Amino acid sequence: MSAPAEAVVDLDAYRANLARLREVAPTAAQMAVVKADAYGHGAVEIAAAAREAGAEWLGVATLEEARDLRRAGDRGPVLAWLNPADADLAPAVDADVDVAAGSVEQLDAVIASGSAARPRVHLKVDTGMARGGVRGAELTALLEAAATAQRAGRIEIAGIFSHFACADEPASPVNGAQEHAFADAVAELASFGAQAPLRHLANSAAALTRPSTHLDMVRVGIASYGLSPGPAVGTSAELGLTPVMTLRTALALVRRVPAGTGVSYGHTYVTRRETTLGLIPVGYGDGLLRAASNRASALVNGVLVPVAGRVCMDQVVLDLGDTPARRGDEVVLFGPGHRGEPLAEDWAEAASTIGYEVLTRLGGRIARRHAGAIPTITGSGG
Ligand SMILES: *Cc1c(COP(=O)(O)O)cnc(C)c1O
Fold first, then answer.
1. Catalytic residue flag (residue 269)
2. Isomerase as a keyword (predicted)?
3. How far, in Å, CA of 261 to CA of 343, rounded?
């Protein structure tokens, strides 16, 4: 390994997770969400694996992410759902990328984009998350404007969608309320004489827990990478999912220190007895969470050992105790758990955050290596 640490991405596990999600939502099309560089897993490789596994759609946030998929050779259906104020939509539309519109203003921007192709638009409804999309009178205006623009041949209404705020808490009453609000929006669009061929609402958590939300398509992100959307949904093992990424490095320095040794910035960790410290060359500059200082652990030679003291920008010290270890021995920070290593969720818990953030923050000097059968991009036509 020449980089200080590597993220090994198991494409076989990724495809198996998509197959599992297909089992859970058999009647809906599957959109593999590959935004934020596929949650840190490498969008190009993950997208190709998703197509190979049969994902009909890819979902991204930005137009740039969609462009990168097209540049990598993907030709299948792609939706990009963010609408920045200064976005140049024409290249995306001309590259057959579906775009979203979450207000009349955003719809007007799509219509005015100057694309050669007729834009395929997914109408974004705010059913209760109060993030993208609109509700009430503003929604009525959006749906009516979209129906009118479609009749005039200026857009094609390809879909209508919304996003859950609390799907990772399956018992929350917000979920049912959002589902109802979405059904109302679909009916309201019909009242203007238009249909959206793709109604989509479910993220990973809803795909796993609320079959009534599957509709025409589910948009799966975190579960496809093998993480549970949240503790109330179950562990990844209970859900039949396998974490796709293993973050590993090697000990750069191993040494014995006496009791009472203060470790790392601020001496927030002081050895209680003589012990072995192991240094690893990765830190918050690579996306490790500093909030996991003194709280996370890693696997060294089959033993779980704690992070000792503060996570630094480029380095972390582990307290190896009396575990036999030498410079060059493998250190697994997180992975699928098969060898007893921590899960990304364990790092999340240690840092009071969510697995999504643990994965997407990784970057910097970490090398990414794809394992498992590596597909070539062919796209699925269209
Ligand atoms: C990120 C995102 C998803 C995927 O959510 P997961 O919880 O990772 O499955 C789906 N839809 C939208 C609009 C998103 O922004």
1. no
2. yes
3. 29
